[in-house]
Amino acid sequence: MGKKKYKALLEDENVRRWYVNVSRGAEVTADVNLKRLSNFCERVGLNPKDLLKMDDKALKNLILDYITDMELKGYAGSYIYLTIKAIESWLSFNNRELRAHLFSVQLAVSPIKFKFIIT
């Protein structure tokens, strides 16, 4: 995905606020999170605002289906995990709480499992 494509998300005021807020910690993190949010939205055919409007069950299922799809395509567990962390950051910034059961992503390079709850 070209830089222009994910930078286009910054035209949305709320996405821009989130990006600027994350960049206060580290601009590189903000850039990576923006790219991951953009890639996720493109893959699932939604925009960031659509994620905020989804009910808990639909959002949880969307994320779980995304994880399964990415695992089947051979993406590294760390890539999947960090993409979900970017989505989690976006949701949290918008006071969007998703109550979901614990699930894990297996890292290909390590037997360690990351476990997290989308909140």
UniProtKB/TrEMBL annotation:
It comes from the Archaea. This is Core-binding (CB) domain-containing protein. It comes from Archaeoglobus sulfaticallidus PM70-1. The lineage of its organism: Archaea, Methanobacteriati, Methanobacteriota, Archaeoglobi, Archaeoglobales.
